[in-house]
Amino acid sequence: MKHTGGGPAAESLARLAPIRFGRAVTGELPQAERREWWLGNGRGAYASGTVALTLTRRYHGLLIAPVDPPLGRALVLAKADATLICGDRRYPLFTNRWSGGSVAPPGHLLVESFHVDGTVPVWRYACDGRIVEHRIWMEPGADTTYLAWRLDGGSDDSPASLSVTFLANGRDHHGETWPPGFNPEIGTDGAKLTATVPGRFALHIAGTGGEIAARREWYENFDLPMERERGLGDRDAHLCVGEASLPLVPGQWVGFVASLKPDASADLDAAMARRRAHDAAVLDRAAGDPAYAEAPGWVRRLILATDLYIFDRPLPDVPDGHSVIAGYPWFGDWGRDTMISLPGLSIATGRLDIAQRILMTFARFIDQGMLPNMFPGAGETPDYNTVDAALWYIEAWRAYVAASGDRASLRDAFPKLAEIVECHEKGTRYGIWVDPNDGLVQAGAPGVQLTWMDARVGDWVVTPRRGKPVEINALWYNALVAMAELAELAGLSAAPYLEAAEHTRTGLARFVMPDGQGIYDVLDGPDGNDGSWRPNQIFAVSLPASPLDPAMQRIVLDRCAGALVTSYGLRSLAPGTREYRGRYGGGVVERDGAYHQGPVWGWLLGHWALAHYRVHGDAAAAQRWLEPIGDHLLDAGLGHVSEIFDGDPPHTPRGCPAQAWSVACILEAWWRLEQARRG
Questions:
Q1: What is the pTM of this model?
Q2: Among 49, 297, 450, 480, which lies 20 to 30 A Cα-Cα from 637?
Q3: Closest CA to 120 of 332, 341, 346, 271
């Protein structure tokens, strides 16, 4: 395997913004641990860890796979701790944290540099006269992870080898380890090892050489500081199932493949070539769009990041179905998040076929004019507690048809889209209905959270927003305008939708506050109108169809600029209010109680930029609001955008370190603004 590869793949990957750190980060444990790498395979499996190669989350590991498809994921292989052996000298190429605060061994101190090659994390260790490079990647489309090491230069040419300890597990990736519950059958044959949990899964590890000896020893009291920060259990244990010995030859890659497939190839060169080709193909599909001709490297990084979230979601009648993982590590696929993310993940990246499959996959679950909040697993009943997912679904169809011209799929889906409108007008679950007096959508029922501000702790709905929320009605107006366009394309009458849209547009004037200097967050709630200073008003300006006149659009933009806009997104509540929480942290109650009460949400930055362009007409100026994200790609989930940030400066990343709609909305906004800039 060459150092970086060559040919077309290398050319595509070379245009990415570099993600690279030296000893100032790799040698400082807090800095190395706050930066995480995330890999996916397009099937729901993932691998993750820190630059220090420590485990700081229960979700860190080398192979977390859906052993109960589609998203019943389990931690299968936690670690492969390698030690370089040169005569009587031993160099740990790994780091572990233990309860009580000890860090042993401190292998991160040997890391000379770390960088990300495409999606592949790369470590270079300086071990006296030796340089060792280490890479980890996943096989696209398979529950398979590759681990590779290479002696790469140095002044010492004496014999060297690797000793690698494999730590396995079988727990749910959300759960905590119970050692008596994991007792796999372990077998070895030369350079191969199999750890089998009968009736559940078998982990197969194969090396490029050497041999693997079976072991059965629990390594306990791993310390998980990120779980402690979240108020959750902060100890873990993993079972050592084997120890490998592998000779090293300067300039040659050696290593292992770990897979749920018994026949996964240990050919590292071919596997790395496939990974690089896959990454390049993601970039190349987008590169056909002239908007990306001069795209900065950080935008190209976002394009590549989109691939982590799209995964196969086969259904009996849609065998090639797809969906979107909302965020790593703890989210599955959600209706709202999928539809908000779809344009940025698939349309803006040239994957119109994927967009169509996602839309058709979700069409099977429309019921009473609603989309599920969470996509059901096998045999599970969908939960429809969301008022906006179906409205975002209509917008996703509008965006898809506008980009693809696919009238055939539109004609097939149009009855479902019409059903959404009809059910909202007649009334559907959770008190969702269109008030005939003003054409506005009313929503809400006691104890149910329906908007995107959906935090709930037990019976406490933190931000109930019952009544007529502003973004829901902006979405409703946008959906009616979109339906008029889609109806014409489908050869049907647009008149009913245009008439309803005009009624709603007139009704939306009720949101304007008496002094004309802002709009309400919610109308007609249990306690009257709610004037909370929240970002939801931005959608009345940013969506393709805005119901507001230019003067009010400017007022909304200025009001958001006054207290909500930050470098990484919009605050969920303005500082200075009694409920504002400037820092997100603590246990479940504290975190969920603060979730939409001040933290900055990254996905809103894209809508802010689009709204800014609508008001000011300067696409380049609007794009500049997105540029700080390029700096954030070097923090938290490397190459990705975090779910949320503290409301108070310096806006520390929180929540999921890799969030689909954060990546998607920022990329989509940049792409649309670049199209506008180019005319």
A1: 0.97
A2: 450
A3: 271
